[in-house]
Batch of 2 targets.
Target 1
Amino acid sequence: MERQQEWGGERRRVVVVGGGVAGSLVAKSIQFHGDVTLIDSKEYFEIPWASLRAMVEPSFAERSVIHHREYLTNGRVITSSAISVTDTEVLTAEGRLVPYDYLVIATGHAYPVPKTRPERLKQCQAENEKIEAAQSILIVGGGPSGVELAGEIAVDYPGKKVTLVHNGFRLLEFIGPKASNKTLDWLKSKHVDVKLEQSVNLNSASEGTYITSAGETISADCHFLTTGKPIGSSWLKETVFKDCLDAFGRLKVDENLRIRGRKNVFAIGDITDVKEIKQGYLAQKHALVAAKNLKLLMTNGKESKMAKYEPGSVKAIVSLGRREAVAQIPWTTTIGIVPGLIKSKDLFVGKTRKQMGLDPHIVDA
Ligand SMILES: Cc1cc2nc3c(=O)[nH]c(=O)nc-3n(C[C@H](O)[C@H](O)[C@H](O)COP(=O)(O)OP(=O)(O)OC[C@H]3O[C@@H](n4cnc5c(N)ncnc54)[C@H](O)[C@@H]3O)c2cc1C
């Protein structure tokens, strides 16, 4: 096992685990203030809310799949999964022990994705070819991913038959029923066949025939599964942080976004137990609070001066193809071109790239 010792001389060693929305932003924000190492199971950061557009327009992924080295110019990247952690070191799947003075855990969700950027771009291309070749498409899951995918396909390929099956009694259960109803009407207007309170056993599908839990038969040339992704905390379950996890596997944090009872360990993004909906724009806010606090602690600032995180209110925009969207903000719910103008054309890709210090338009090398 390789033990990495002398990294960075006097600068404090900050290890960030997870290179998603929150982890990549915190790593980028503190890279000139500490000796930063980002450990991620893949070599790139992908803007998640652009991934469904990339299925109908694969070239879209060229701006939204960003190699970590593009924004982390003064830090180190280890492309490997973290598999364990102690009070002083992180252990990776490749057997590296990475020592830290400060640790940030940002492993929001863990699911298999290609390790390299070229492989991920190829996967987007393959998904698009699957859609192009199909006359009928089944989408399983009526959360934001399923709805956005149905919207993308219905708008870009109006001739294809799209069926969306969801086991809940309404779409988009993470926001209010008004948004669900408006979205259902919109999908129906685009001839998407929505089946609620049903599930599909994909293993029993044969030759393009799928049977739902209600006994209905769906014919589809291909399917996409968009149900919820598992929380990325299983690697912590046998570690010094096992008692810091709540019943849902989320890390319990204090108002400064440190793991409760820990002085030098932060947790940010979807993996935290912060009482708010799990959204990327909130994960970005967590990252900025944690970055501020890390900078303060690394310069021996007073703990009492640390920034506090205030949980966000329910705000969400779910895109419906390239021009429209459904939005819920605290005082209203709206659907159509107006919320679409905010999100649906560029899906905040330019904005996110800018926040990462990158050109909003130019594609990575
Ligand atoms: C399709 C889709 C559309 C969305 N649309 C929106 C939207 O429009 N607006 C919005 O605000 N939010 C949106 N969200 C939600 C948003 O993407 C999440 O809230 C956000 O990604 C959470 O960020 P995170 O950094 O906590 O976790 P993630 O972004 O899930 O990042 C976790 C990272 O940790 C890595 N990882 C996991 N386990 C390990 C390990 N053991 N070792 C090393 N690395 C590990 C993963 O590879 C990943 O890079 C969307 C999500 C999806 C899936």
Target 2
Amino acid sequence: MARPQVLWALGYAAGAAAMAFWLWSRAGSWGLLLGLMLGVIATHFGIHLVIYLVEMIWLGRPPIPDCRRGRCGGADYYVELQEGRKTYLCRCGVRYRRRGLRFLEIAADGREIPFRRWRQFRGWFPDFKF
Ligand SMILES: [Zn+2]
């Protein structure tokens, strides 16, 4: 299995090579040089645009909202597996679970209480109805 860095480098190289070849076939050797540079830049923006869209539409950004008390952010949560599902324990001792675009608080009796809901391109909003 290739390391991620290798895949990233290959992706950039492929983008640069494609652009270089395309410009080279039209503008000759200067096109080759320009194409290599433009290809790297275009690949960079293309990859980050895709990541941005995926986060804004399907994942949420940050992927986990601040906790109910507002004290814990994404890195403060401790991830556990409960019955095969990911559970997020914040430093205040409250458990949360993600379900689709919803972030639910888990009460002591196991009930799921609506807490936050990701709205595409807008952010995490209070979730009132279930
Ligand atoms: Zn907390």
